[in-house]
Protein backbone atom coordinates (compact mmCIF):
# COMPACT_ATOMS: atom_id res chain seq x y z
CA UNK A 1 0.00 0.00 0.00
CA UNK A 2 3.00 2.37 0.17
CA UNK A 3 2.48 3.27 -3.51
CA UNK A 4 -1.24 3.80 -3.12
CA UNK A 5 -2.73 7.16 -2.29
CA UNK A 6 -6.30 7.58 -1.12
CA UNK A 7 -7.60 11.10 -0.97
CA UNK A 8 -10.87 12.90 -0.39
CA UNK A 9 -10.82 16.50 -1.49
CA UNK A 10 -13.53 18.99 -0.54
CA UNK A 11 -13.37 22.33 -2.30
CA UNK A 12 -15.47 25.48 -2.40
CA UNK A 13 -15.63 27.42 -5.64
CA UNK A 14 -17.39 30.74 -6.11
CA UNK A 15 -19.74 30.31 -9.06
CA UNK A 16 -21.03 33.88 -9.02
CA UNK A 17 -21.03 36.65 -6.41
CA UNK A 18 -23.50 34.92 -4.14
CA UNK A 19 -23.28 31.21 -4.98
CA UNK A 20 -20.64 28.73 -3.84
CA UNK A 21 -20.38 25.22 -5.23
CA UNK A 22 -18.91 22.75 -2.77
CA UNK A 23 -17.58 19.56 -4.36
CA UNK A 24 -16.18 16.30 -3.00
CA UNK A 25 -13.74 14.29 -5.13
CA UNK A 26 -12.47 10.82 -4.25
CA UNK A 27 -8.98 10.14 -5.60
CA UNK A 28 -7.25 6.79 -5.76
CA UNK A 29 -3.96 6.33 -7.54
CA UNK A 30 -0.83 4.25 -7.65
CA UNK A 31 2.40 6.25 -7.78
CA UNK A 32 3.99 3.48 -9.90
CA UNK A 33 1.46 4.17 -12.67
CA UNK A 34 1.80 7.76 -13.93
CA UNK A 35 -1.42 9.76 -14.35
CA UNK A 36 -3.57 7.07 -12.73
CA UNK A 37 -5.07 9.84 -10.58
CA UNK A 38 -6.83 11.11 -13.72
CA UNK A 39 -9.30 8.24 -13.38
CA UNK A 40 -11.09 10.74 -11.12
CA UNK A 41 -12.42 12.20 -14.38
CA UNK A 42 -14.37 9.01 -15.09
CA UNK A 43 -17.94 8.46 -13.99
CA UNK A 44 -18.57 5.74 -11.43
CA UNK A 45 -20.55 3.57 -13.88
CA UNK A 46 -17.72 3.79 -16.42
CA UNK A 47 -15.17 2.75 -13.78
CA UNK A 48 -17.32 -0.31 -13.03
CA UNK A 49 -17.57 -1.06 -16.77
CA UNK A 50 -13.79 -0.71 -17.22
CA UNK A 51 -13.16 -3.36 -14.56
CA UNK A 52 -15.58 -5.81 -16.22
CA UNK A 53 -14.15 -5.27 -19.70
CA UNK A 54 -10.55 -5.51 -18.54
CA UNK A 55 -11.32 -8.80 -16.78
CA UNK A 56 -12.61 -10.14 -20.13
CA UNK A 57 -9.25 -9.31 -21.71
CA UNK A 58 -7.33 -11.01 -18.88
CA UNK A 59 -9.56 -14.08 -19.16
CA UNK A 60 -9.05 -14.24 -22.95
CA UNK A 61 -12.71 -13.48 -23.76
CA UNK A 62 -11.76 -10.21 -25.49
CA UNK A 63 -8.55 -9.62 -27.43
CA UNK A 64 -7.96 -6.04 -26.25
CA UNK A 65 -9.71 -3.11 -24.57
CA UNK A 66 -9.14 0.64 -24.87
CA UNK A 67 -10.16 2.61 -21.82
CA UNK A 68 -9.32 5.46 -19.49
CA UNK A 69 -9.57 9.21 -19.54
CA UNK A 70 -8.17 12.01 -21.66
CA UNK A 71 -4.97 12.20 -19.56
CA UNK A 72 -4.74 8.45 -18.86
CA UNK A 73 -5.58 6.44 -21.97
CA UNK A 74 -4.85 2.70 -21.89
CA UNK A 75 -4.72 0.02 -24.57
CA UNK A 76 -4.85 -3.32 -22.76
CA UNK A 77 -4.01 -6.80 -24.01
CA UNK A 78 -3.99 -10.03 -21.98
CA UNK A 79 -0.54 -9.55 -20.42
CA UNK A 80 0.52 -5.97 -21.11
CA UNK A 81 -1.05 -2.55 -21.27
CA UNK A 82 0.29 0.59 -22.88
CA UNK A 83 -0.55 3.85 -21.10
CA UNK A 84 -0.56 7.24 -22.83
CA UNK A 85 -1.28 10.87 -22.04
CA UNK A 86 -2.74 11.96 -25.40
CA UNK A 87 -3.10 15.61 -24.39
CA UNK A 88 0.62 15.97 -23.67
CA UNK A 89 1.55 13.38 -26.32
CA UNK A 90 3.41 11.43 -23.66
CA UNK A 91 4.07 7.70 -23.42
CA UNK A 92 3.48 6.75 -19.77
CA UNK A 93 4.87 3.25 -20.06
CA UNK A 94 3.90 -0.39 -20.39
CA UNK A 95 2.49 -2.19 -17.37
CA UNK A 96 1.22 -5.67 -16.60
CA UNK A 97 -2.51 -5.69 -17.35
CA UNK A 98 -3.15 -7.45 -14.05
CA UNK A 99 -1.67 -4.42 -12.21
CA UNK A 100 -4.09 -2.08 -13.95
CA UNK A 101 -6.94 -4.46 -13.21
CA UNK A 102 -5.95 -4.44 -9.53
CA UNK A 103 -5.81 -0.64 -9.65
CA UNK A 104 -9.42 -0.56 -10.90
CA UNK A 105 -10.60 -3.17 -8.40
CA UNK A 106 -9.03 -1.27 -5.51
CA UNK A 107 -10.41 2.06 -6.72
CA UNK A 108 -13.89 0.53 -6.93
CA UNK A 109 -13.51 -0.88 -3.43
CA UNK A 110 -12.58 2.61 -2.17
CA UNK A 111 -15.54 4.16 -4.00
CA UNK A 112 -17.98 1.53 -2.69
CA UNK A 113 -16.87 2.36 0.84
CA UNK A 114 -18.41 5.82 0.36
CA UNK A 115 -21.14 5.04 -2.16
CA UNK A 116 -23.67 6.08 0.48
CA UNK A 117 -23.32 9.88 0.25
CA UNK A 118 -24.59 10.36 3.81
CA UNK A 119 -21.85 8.01 5.05
CA UNK A 120 -19.29 10.04 3.11
CA UNK A 121 -20.61 13.27 4.64
CA UNK A 122 -20.39 11.74 8.15
CA UNK A 123 -16.80 10.63 7.48
CA UNK A 124 -15.79 14.13 6.35
CA UNK A 125 -17.62 15.69 9.28
CA UNK A 126 -15.84 13.44 11.79
CA UNK A 127 -12.51 14.26 10.16
CA UNK A 128 -13.23 17.98 10.38
CA UNK A 129 -13.95 17.60 14.08
CA UNK A 130 -10.38 16.34 14.55
CA UNK A 131 -9.01 19.59 13.15
CA UNK A 132 -8.75 22.21 15.87
CA UNK A 133 -11.53 24.74 15.73
CA UNK A 134 -9.00 27.56 15.30
CA UNK A 135 -7.32 25.84 12.33
CA UNK A 136 -10.69 25.10 10.71
CA UNK A 137 -11.97 28.66 11.11
CA UNK A 138 -8.77 30.54 10.26
CA UNK A 139 -7.34 28.59 7.34
CA UNK A 140 -8.50 28.19 3.75
CA UNK A 141 -6.72 24.80 3.49
CA UNK A 142 -6.69 22.03 6.08
CA UNK A 143 -5.33 18.51 5.73
CA UNK A 144 -5.90 15.55 8.01
CA UNK A 145 -5.32 11.82 7.63
CA UNK A 146 -7.99 9.44 8.92
CA UNK A 147 -7.89 5.66 8.32
CA UNK A 148 -5.01 6.12 5.82
CA UNK A 149 -7.14 8.53 3.79
CA UNK A 150 -5.78 12.02 3.25
CA UNK A 151 -8.59 14.56 3.52
CA UNK A 152 -7.97 17.99 2.03
CA UNK A 153 -10.42 20.77 2.78
CA UNK A 154 -10.16 23.81 0.53
CA UNK A 155 -12.33 26.68 1.67
CA UNK A 156 -13.19 29.97 0.06
CA UNK A 157 -13.12 33.32 1.89
CA UNK A 158 -16.93 33.18 1.94
CA UNK A 159 -16.64 30.03 4.10
CA UNK A 160 -14.96 31.94 6.93
CA UNK A 161 -16.83 31.35 10.15
CA UNK A 162 -19.07 28.69 8.60
CA UNK A 163 -19.86 25.94 11.07
CA UNK A 164 -18.83 22.38 10.19
CA UNK A 165 -22.45 21.19 9.95
CA UNK A 166 -23.30 24.03 7.56
CA UNK A 167 -20.18 23.39 5.50
CA UNK A 168 -21.06 19.69 5.14
CA UNK A 169 -24.75 20.32 4.43
CA UNK A 170 -23.87 22.64 1.56
CA UNK A 171 -21.89 20.03 -0.37
CA UNK A 172 -23.58 19.81 -3.77
CA UNK A 173 -21.61 17.35 -5.89
CA UNK A 174 -19.80 14.11 -5.29
CA UNK A 175 -17.32 13.04 -7.97
CA UNK A 176 -17.30 10.40 -9.49
CA UNK A 177 -20.81 9.41 -8.28
CA UNK A 178 -22.77 11.83 -10.52
CA UNK A 179 -24.47 10.24 -13.51
Walk me through the structure.
With 179 residues, the chain is α+β, with helices and mostly antiparallel strands. It has helices at residues 44-58, 97-113, 117-130, 133-138, 164-169; strands at residues 4-14, 20-30, 64-69, 72-77, 80-85, 90-96, 141-146, 149-154, 171-175. It has a 5-stranded mixed beta sheet with strand order 7-8-1-2-9. A 4-stranded antiparallel beta sheet has the order 3-4-5-6. A hairpin with a 5-residue loop joins strand 1 (4-14) and strand 2 (20-30). The two termini are 30 Å apart. The mean pLDDT is 86.
Give a topology summary:
Elements: E1 4-14, E2 20-30, H1 44-58, E3 64-69, E4 72-77, E5 80-85, E6 90-96, H2 97-113, H3 117-130, H4 133-138, E7 141-146, E8 149-154, H5 164-169, E9 171-175
Parallel strand pairs: 1-8, 2-9
Antiparallel strand pairs: 1-2, 3-4, 4-5, 5-6, 7-8
Helix pairs in contact: 1-2
Quick synopsis:
With 179 residues, the protein is an alpha+beta fold.
Characteristic key phrases:
179 residues; alpha+beta; 5-stranded mixed sheet; 4-stranded antiparallel sheet
Please give the radius of gyration in angstroms. Answer: 18 Å
- Beta-strand percentage? 35-45%
- Helix-strand makeup class: alpha+beta
- Put simply, the count of helices is 5
Query: Averaged pLDDT, please?
Result: 86
Label the overall shape: elongated
- Total strands: the figure is 9
Low-confidence stretches: none
Amino acid sequence: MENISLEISVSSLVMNKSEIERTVRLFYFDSRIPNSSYLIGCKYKYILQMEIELKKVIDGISQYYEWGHERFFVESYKDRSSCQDPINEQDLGIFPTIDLYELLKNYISFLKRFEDIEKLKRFIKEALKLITNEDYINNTHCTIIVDDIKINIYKNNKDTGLLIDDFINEIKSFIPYQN
